[in-house]
């Protein structure tokens, strides 16, 4: 078994209202120095060792992310 | 069409009947479209809006049949969550994201019909303004500038918000169509404006009359 991590974030040009809400809450916490927050999604997949990268890429590109509005990054975590 | 989590499927069916059509309930897990003349993907929260709105519904068993039929010219109307499903299925370009003001919006909304030549809007006049309810949390229509320019240049913006944009949609876009004009998606709810008793008026009837008018002129 291997662990594959897929991170999905909105493309930079797409407005992120949830990230903005978090920025708004930061100021109420009294935290300064954080100028922007972008919220994304983090997927952890337990996969067979022999599963190839192209299958994971296809999964990320068709289901986990919507490439119209989101970018994704894939990495294999050493067990 | 009913998906798990659909909630406006009955209203859509009723709007079809009020307009003089026959409604046929379809279920997402049945890949057979049962020879219907058109399909309405209703509003609601298919699969609880998990992952992204419409993202799981797009892989329902019926969707392969529906995508193929739509590409062959079957009229398909996606309302609200149905619009999100059509975008996720790439039958329409762009995507819907969380409202820019971060609140759910539910109000009567004026729209301008920019394209009265689609299978779902031929009962309207181009430029006609209609009042229908809008209710969504993730109704902000977005696409890259090139796609938006192409939609505008080819007349594929079907309806646009007037008197205030309820959700931050780019260029006030409320609904769009595919190149052939048989697939239309919009966030507002024409099926909630078909009877004076329960809606702001009957301006929504035109979507359903448009379809039935076209079907009536076609050979049996």
Overall geometry of chain B comes to: globular
Tally the beta strands of chain B: 9
Q: How many DSSP helices of chain B? A: 5
Please count the helical segments of chain A: 2
Query: What count of domains describes the coordinates of chain B?
Result: 1
The CATH class of chain A turns out to be: Alpha Beta
Number of strands of chain A: 3
CATH architecture of chain A: 2-Layer Sandwich
Shape of chain A: elongated
CATH class designation of chain B: Alpha Beta
Architecture overview:
Chain A has 79 residues and is of the alpha+beta class. Chain A has one domain: Phosphoribosylformylglycinamidine synthase subunit PurS (Mth169, Chain: A). Chain A is built from 2 helices and 3 strands, in the order βαβαβ. Chain A is elongated, with a radius of gyration of 16 Å. The termini of chain A are close together. With 220 residues, chain B is α+β, with helices and mostly antiparallel strands. Chain B has 5 helices and 9 strands, in the order αβαβαββββαβββα. Chain B has helices at 9-18, 61-71, 81-88, 145-153, 205-217, and strands spanning 39-41, 76-79, 95-97, 105-113, 129-136, 140-142, 157-161, 173-177, 183-186. In chain B, the strands form 2 sheets. A 7-stranded mixed β-sheet of chain B has the order 1-2-9-8-7-4-5, covered by helices on one side. Classes of the chains: A alpha+beta (79), B alpha+beta (220).
What's this model, at a glance?
Chain A is α+β, with helices and mostly antiparallel strands and 79 residues long. Helices cover 30% and strands 32% of the residues of chain A.
Keywords:
heterodimer; A: 79 residues; alpha+beta; Mth169, Chain: A; elongated; B: 220 residues; Rossmann fold; seven-stranded mixed sheet; 9 strands; globular
């Amino acid at each position: 078994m291997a662990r594959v991590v897929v991170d999905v974030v909105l493309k930079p040009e797409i407005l992120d209202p949830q990230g903005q809400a978090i920025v708004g809450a930061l100021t109420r916490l009294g935290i300064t120095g954080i100028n922007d927050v972008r919220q994304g999604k983090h997927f952890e997949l337990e996969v067979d060792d022999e599963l190839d990268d192209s299958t994971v890429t296809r999964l990320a590109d068709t289901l986990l992310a919507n490439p119209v509005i989101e970018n994704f990054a894939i990495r294999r975590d050493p067990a | 069409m009913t998906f798990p989590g659909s909630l406006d499927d009955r209203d859509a069916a009723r709007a079809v009947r009020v307009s003089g059509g026959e409604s046929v309930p379809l279920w997402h897990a049945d890949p057979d479209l049962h020879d219907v003349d058109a399909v309405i993907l209703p509003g609601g929260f298919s699969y609880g809006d998990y992952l992204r709105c419409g993202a799981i519904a797009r892989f329902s068993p019926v969707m392969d049949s529906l995508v193929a039929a739509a590409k062959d010219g079957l009229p398909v109307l996606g309302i609200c969550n149905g619009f999100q499903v059509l975008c996720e299925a790439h039958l329409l370009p762009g995507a819907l994201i969380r409202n820019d003001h971060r609140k759910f919006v539910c109000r009567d909304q004026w729209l301008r019909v920019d394209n009265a030549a689609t299978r779902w809007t031929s009962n309207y006049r181009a430029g006609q303004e209609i009042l229908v309810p809008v209710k969504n949390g993730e109704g902000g229509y977005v696409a890259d500038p090139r796609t938006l320019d192409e939609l505008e240049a080819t007349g594929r913006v079907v309806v646009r918000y007037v008197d205030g944009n309820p959700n931050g949609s780019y260029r006030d876009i409320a609904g769009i169509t595919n190149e052939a004009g048989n697939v239309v998606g919009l966030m507002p709810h024409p099926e909630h404006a078909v009877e004076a008793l329960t809606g702001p008026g009957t301006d929504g009837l035109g979507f359903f009359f448009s379809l039935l008018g076209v079907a009536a002129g076609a050979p049996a």
